[in-house]
Design brief:
Layout (H helix, E strand, L loop, with lengths): L3 H27 L9 H12 L3 H12 L4 H8 L4 H13 L3 E6 L2 E6 L1 H13 L1
Antiparallel strand pairs: 1-2
Length: 127
Amino acid sequence: MPSKSTTATKSAGASKSSASSTATATARRSAPKRGKGPSANVRQAAELLKQVSDPTRLQVLMLLTEKERNVSELCTDLGSTSQPAVSHHLALLRHGRLIEPRRTGKHNYYYLTDAGRELAQVVDAIV
């Protein structure tokens, strides 16, 4: 059986060790992160690029640089893309504020917003 002083020394050592690891864990959690992360402009640019990350959406964007088009015209220009698929792509571009609809009779004609025009210019310069 260990002596009382040995037991007390082991307990004190264990307490120091657990206190030390608790302090280290607390310091890790409360330490500031390195770097601030992406700026608001970078996050906004990333979101815009996500909107045109699909080749069909990018093609729709580039077609709309020429003139306004409705879904039927876009389906014809895109070839084998179905009307529901084109409508889905248009909804995503609209959600990203790259295009807007203009209602005329039964048809919506889509055109580029300022952000859509700027993005199309960047894409045109790359391609």
